[in-house]
Amino acid sequence: MNQLIKKVATDLYSVQMKWVAWYLPIVFVVYVALLAFVAEPELRTMSLLTFTFQTATIFMLVCGILASFVFLPVYIKQGVTRKTYFKATILSSIALATTIIVITAFATWVLTFFKRYTTLFDEVVLSSLVVIEGNWFLISFAYVIVIFIYYLAGWLISLGFYRYGAAGGFGFIAISLVLIFLTDIIWNLNTPKPIVGIIPIGSFSINIGIAFILSLIIIAIVVTIVQKVTKDIAIVVE
């Protein structure tokens, strides 16, 4: 791998991990506080891993949006090619998604040892994923894939506005919403589904292998679009 790609990817990862260093502790504290003070049945069965995953979708979406508006002009100004920036962003976002879920999965595992001292976590279920039950590795891997797709969706949105202006940007928002909606349907998630209500689709579950394959297809589609848009994008350098 090109050393410059590694350097840029490491830089991007380091910057975004500084945000994670604030984000995760806040989410963890909020989770415990909600369990302690809010008597909501759905919340009380939610594990720290699932709770953090729900918020991580939005966090990664925002990080993806910043990928073009903040990072792209900076690196192009420093002489980094669009191709290098593209590859580095892909690598750093995968690492970011993996780190968030791995740290949270470990924290969730640690909390299981507190069950002998408190009843706070008695009703907690590891994951609400219909296609996976009780498998830590598969659940974590699925969560990594999903929040990575959210990052790509945010990146796609920011590229749309950056290159094509408001009209193109809103078009890319529509594309991203459809891709997010499909991802949520594939995994039968409870994350926001903006198109539900317009398209009447009932709840259903599919084979986990098919879910992974369909998710990888969605990733391939978004990555291809992002690559083509990034390739010839005009950079506004102040």
Describe, in plain words, how this protein is organized in 3D.
- By secondary structure, the chain is mostly helical.
- It has one domain (3-231).
- It is built from six helices and no strands.
- Helix 3 runs antiparallel to helix 4 (82-111), helix 3 packs across helix 5 and helix 5 (136-187) crosses helix 6.
- The radius of gyration is 19 Å and the shape is globular.
- This is ABC-2 family transporter protein.
- The chain crosses the membrane at residues 20-39, 51-76, 88-114, 134-157, 169-189, 195-226.
- Keywords: Membrane, Transmembrane, Transmembrane helix.
Summarize, please.
This protein has 6 helices and no strands. It is mainly α.
Structural class: mainly alpha
Order of helices and strands: HHHHHH
Count of domains? 1
Query: Which range does the strand content fall in?
Result: under 5%
Shape: globular
Q: Can you give the mean pLDDT? A: 82
What is the count of helical runs? 6
Rounded to an integer in angstroms, the radius of gyration calculated over CA atoms is 19 Å
From the N-terminal CA to the C-terminal CA, the straight-line distance is: 31 Å
Transmembrane segments: 20-39, 51-76, 88-114, 134-157, 169-189, 195-226
Organism: Halalkalibacter krulwichiae
Protein name: ABC-2 family transporter protein
Keywords: Membrane, Transmembrane, Transmembrane helix
Key features?
238 residues, mainly alpha, 6 helices, transmembrane, transmembrane helix
Topology:
Layout: H1 3-37, H2 41-44, H3 48-77, H4 82-111, H5 136-187, H6 208-231
Helix pairs in contact: 1-3, 1-4, 3-4, 3-5, 4-5, 4-6, 5-6
